[in-house]
Amino acid sequence: MAAAEPGSIEELCSKTWKPLYLFIYFKVQNRQEAEDITQETYVKAMSHLLSGKVAPNKYIAFLKTVAHNLLRDGWRRKQRRGTTVDIDAIHPQDYATEGPDESSIQRQTLEDALMRLNLEQRTVIELRIIQGYSVAETARFMNVTEEAVRVKQHRALRKLADLLKNYD
Amino acid sequence: MADAEQKLSEFIDRLNADLQPEEDEHTTKSDELRELYRTVRKVRRLREPTMPEEDFAERLTDAVSRRVSRSKPHAKRKTWGWMTAAAAVAAALVLLLNMPMPWGKTNIVKAMAEAFREVNAYHGVLEIVAKTADGESRLQGKLDIWADKNGRYYVKSLDGSQQGLVTVNDGKNKWQIQPQDREVHLFPALPDAYRVQFEIGHEIEEAERALSASVIGEDVIAGRTASILEVTPEGGLPYRIWVDAETRLPLRKQTAMVHAIQYTFTYSQIEFADAIPEPLLTYRLPDGFTEIAANPEQIVLDAKEAETIVGFAPQLPEDLPSGYVLDRIAVVPDELRVKAYYTNDSQNSHVIVTQGRAAGKLQPAPDAVIGETGDSAVEVLPPAAGDGSVGSIRWQQDGTEWAVLGNQPVDRLAALAETFMTAPLQLPPADNRTKPIAEVEYDLAIEKADQQNADAGSSVWKLDPVFTAQVFVSLQMMPDGVVGDYPIALEDLVVASNNGVQAIVEVRDESAPIARVYVERVVRQDDTGIWTVVGYDPRTP
Lengths: 168, 541
Hints:
A: about 65% helix, B: about 30% strand
């Protein structure tokens, strides 16, 4: 695709939405926000893409960078008053480049840190966050009260956050 | 601190539901929560991402085109003429099916209950669709379900990120086959928090218990004609179930829209059988899978073998209430506890009696009903109304802590518990209200809204009488709002009495201006009901 022609929004979206969505989902970890930010990213980036200022082989990197900036600037906080990403200030050398290797390293770091929690802390994180069970279900599995689950998950995450700081 | 734990939990719940959290790292004022919210998101990266629905690219293109000022043709308005005739047919059906029975239930609910009495087991493919307030729908999951009336089930996930996940409970053991991790996790059969979603027997019980249930129309589901029944539960939002005209059994359920999301459960296929096929309920470790034993129990042959492991002779009385049969004995070696499993086939029930050395004084759960046996307190936790969940009775005698738990009403659990007690079980009367010195007025409409929030997983602290009292006392001490930790610690609040509907919480911190808080389940009087402060006793110097 040369400099994108007006009328090619459909083609542009259909060819690029999946890696962009996955990039955003990786950051926000919920479908609702991932879909909203994906849409917001295209709205912010579209006129720039359609103007031909971005090379087609850089579309995805450019879109990820716009999304990255939306996220960094507290997209959520600015929903009501509109987002303010300065598209023209994004240069090709600044394009987001986080790829599978970075993800794998982060995953490994996280798994290492999880292994350093005690069994109870790992269990509550596994059940609540990785398996996605409710507090009530987790309480039943762990044979503790729901209040105890909230206390344990808070302590486990506190410990995990401290461990992850050591990897940073 | 408790507030932070609650917020963190709500954050996790929202992400688990694939929804944007109400508070996140960008909006919280707490540095600690900001860090913990980020940590939760990092941990979730170990999960597979949830992809949008198939039409996302199309919707995205439309939305982006609209927002960058490119016009799209509008869909033609639907014509409504054909619906007039359909509405007339539906109105006739409504009239026919809503003719009241002598005892006030509608024909269709009674017909469902009668039809289900003939069913021993069923097999269906259940589709779960989530719809947002914007009208967006997506398939949340697709399950292959086998269930029977004894609470046994086999559930396989056919779609989505959990595709291939199998969960089985054969009444004695529960296991979960996790193909992505090539692991099989083992769990005790009871207590079992897992619920077969849209379990037909449960839905019929709910409709029977509801404040009202009436037919509002007709529809066709998977090629089958169905009546649409609107069910209004006590203190809850109305929901709909679609009842197959031929089998008189529910085919679909649609929840109310709560927090901008509505779920629809549909059996796209269903068939009835005498039993769940035995191979599905037979445990087998697939080749190449690892067994993860989350079940710490060890089955023993008899009381003597249990004694050699736990160091005391368990009591196993032979004179049991009618219908109960000892099924098996297990020990939990790490806890030096014995678990005796009883079944009662006439009531389709499983009850466990545990006994082990008491470690310290019994500390009843805050929401428990407090009874007595001899001079000892008894903790009674009734099962949640009608959903087959587990209730329990726990007490101590002669240095041993006992618990009886099962999917039975409290009176049946109590009958079994009494065979192990040395003195009769005394439960508080349903109405043992003591009048507070100062009454607190409440707005029932607000309480009903809070109940609906609690049903949807928000404001769950109102399900705990102690938390409810803590918030009330704290706000009396800090009328402009609680800043930082609550001025009254949870450990200074003690449930003095609780009959399941009314409770009195004592405030044991002398600095508090209140000595006792009176709370009551004013909206729903079971353990899903929220607590409301109805009065208090000021502290006298």
